[in-house]
Design a protein that fits this description.
globular; about 35% helix; 2 domains; alpha+beta; 12 helices; Endonuclease, Chain A; about 400 residues; seven-stranded mixed sheet
Length: about 400
């Protein structure tokens, strides 16, 4: 269920409703995404929240930082919350420059928390909100590999740009996450001035979160709904695929109803061990008549899905146990035929132009028993490591 801040009481109230008044567009990762960040920051008038997993002080990170610094110098209130593990290599000089410009900067908890000893929880979502009226929700980190640099093309990824009611709700969620830590100076409600939209821009959108430590499982439920409600077809793009067994059961049930399911995965993994674990599931996928495609041009880092040309989910959530139980994730669900059809058209173009279909015959030819055993060991090892880093430790309502 969504969490929306009640401004009078300062608490988060739960709702499960789509908000109607939103202008939405799909943004592909790379130059388009980072141009949009710079444009949003340069036009912000009151406040900016940036929360992300990886922020590198390379060419791309420097460009984003410069845009935020320009905003801070115009007296825009800027808050940056960056994951303390994934971005631990940010230099002291880089952080000092941000703070000297007036940016409120902090890390989302270090890897090891001595008093609770919980290692698994990470800030994995990628969110930008300006003036509580414009936002982007993405799977894209701030680093050169997610950008188009020279002749090197970005990893394949996506974002949703939104103007309207969802941006105001997302602004309140960012404030809530920032204020949860006692060590950070509290920020207020912020400025909200949603602009009037044209009738054709009234798109139905809802915020979905996963944060198992705080019992939030909205995105997991969205994926369950996807397979429960699909009538004709569903396409899922994810960078790391090893879902919980309950979700596998729902996928199998959908195919038995005659739903065509396409799964777009990466061929070039940034974490090879995770890819080996994923390939252990291929034979199960074949047995359940699921079409498997591997993206060839670069690393696939996108995390999105659509069903029946009616509904889309997009954000930071991978279809695996880490996103389901260990990380802080955020997606937007979009119930809109035009957006869903556009997303499906993009999927089909990628399948036709940039992917190879992995068939049972091809998989059997290229993978001997030794490789299959290695995939099995990888799959089991990933689950053991995951268990040790999450379920072994008591689920605690910890502070950031």
């Amino acid at each position: 269920m969504e969490e929306v801040k009640n401004n009078k009481k300062g608490k988060l109230q739960k709702t499960n409703e789509y908000t109607i008044h939103n202008k939405v567009k799909i943004v592909r990762g790379g130059a388009d995404f980072f141009n949009a960040i710079a444009d949003i920051a340069d036009n912000a008038k009151h406040s900016i929240h940036l929360q992300t997993y990886i922020f590198d002080d390379d060419e791309t990170g420097t460009r984003v930082a410069e845009a935020l610094i320009r905003a801070a110098k115009r007296n825009v209130i800027v808050h940056m919350l960056i994951d303390g593990y994934a971005s631990k290599n940010l230099s002291v000089a880089f952080i000092s420059r941000l703070k000297e410009a007036g940016i409120h900067f902090d890390f989302f908890r270090p890897l090891v928390l001595a008093n609770l000893f919980y290692l698994g929880r990470r800030l994995h979502h990628k969110v930008l909100v300006a003036d509580a009226s414009i936002c982007m929700v993405a799977g894209i980190n701030v680093s050169n590999r997610y950008n188009d640099i020279g002749d090197t093309k970005a990893w394949l990824d996506w974002a949703i740009y939104d103007e309207g009611e969802v941006a105001a709700q997302l602004n309140n969620i960012c404030i809530h996450i920032w204020n949860r830590s006692p060590r950070r100076k509290k920020c207020g409600i912020g400025f909200s001035a949603a602009q009037p939209l044209l009738p054709e821009e009234n798109c139905m959108v809802r915020i979905r979160r996963n944060d198992w430590v705080y019992s939030h499982t909205q995105i997991t439920r969205s994926y369950r709904e996807l397979f429960n409600k699909a009538h004709t077809h569903a396409t899922i793009m994810t960078s790391y695929f090893w879902p919980p067994q309950k979700l596998l059961n729902r996928i199998a049930a959908a195919t038995r109803r005659g739903v065509k399911i396409q799964l777009i995965l990466t061929a070039k993994a940034d974490v090879p061990f995770a890819k080996y674990s994923e390939r252990y599931l291929y034979r199960w996928l074949f047995r359940n008549n699921i079409e498997v495609y591997e993206y060839q041009k670069n690393v696939l880092h996108g995390k999105t899905a659509q069903r029946d040309n009616e509904w889309v989910t997009l954000g930071s959530y991978n279809v695996n146990n880490i996103s389901a139980f260990a990380s802080v994730e955020l997606n937007l669900d979009i119930n809109d035929t035009m957006i869903a059809t556009e997303m499906n058209n993009k999927f089909q173009a990628i399948i036709n132009e940039d992917c190879i279909r992995i068939t049972p015959a091809e998989f059997a030819t290229t993978n001997n028993y030794l490789k299959l055993f290695y995939y099995y060991l990888s799959y089991r090892t990933v689950h053991i490591i995951f268990y040790l880093f999450t379920f072994y430790f008591t689920q605690k309502r910890e502070k950031n």
